[in-house]
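Z., the sequence and structure:
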Amino acid sequence: MAHQQYRTDMYEGMLAETVMMKGFNGDTINAYFARPLGPGPFPGVVLIHHIPGWDEWYREATRRFAHHGYMALSPNIYYRVGHGSPEDVAAKVRSEGGVADDQVVGDAAGARDFLSALPTNNGKVGVFGTCSGGRHAFLAACRSKGFSAAVECWGGRVVMAPQELAPKTPVAPIDYTKDLSCPLLGLFGQEDTAPSPQQVAQHEKVLKKFGKQYEFHTYPNAGHGFFYYHRPAYRQEQAVDGWNKVFAFLEKNLGTAGSS
């Protein structure tokens, strides 16, 4: 439900829980799933979490999408390194050089298939991510067919120098741009360094080169992670506008509850 459609007399309900799903290579991993109650049909959104881990902010974001009429699923892309606090698990992942791009793309595709298979899905699923998850959202939309929209929030390392490539990240995401198979929304901060405004401009140049459907918004007086209300990087005005742009973009490309 969009902001302007909210009414005080409507029925509202939500189910949110941890589920198991099939990810990369057929692995079973856990995921956080939130969906509106009601007959639907509902569009779906896959949320790919950021480097700090599969944390509380991503749980809240998943429920936020459900509140707005989406079936939302956030896979634990760090599942294979073990369990503990999000911070401890993320530290272990970083010490191992991160997760492989192939694995994240496979997990995102598995989450998309999980949502697509539900009888209450309207036939469309988008992908959303912030920070490294923004990079991964773009990568998934390029390398895995079947997403109807992608939201990349301050995705660092979409543009990569040759010396940054590694066995787990062998190809810069920007080099897959020609394969992008759905509309893309990008939100960035003018004061960010990863990605820098120059890297965002390069990202945009390649999207234009291949005639891709996209919209980019760069916010002044905002840096990396300006949605994160629990951190000093939070910028209230820019975050509110950014969230409005996310929901307007997804409504346009995925539809709304009851649409198919």
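Residues 3-254 form a domain with the Rossmann fold fold (CATH 3.40.50.1820). The longest strand covers residues 121-130.

Let me know what you think.
H.
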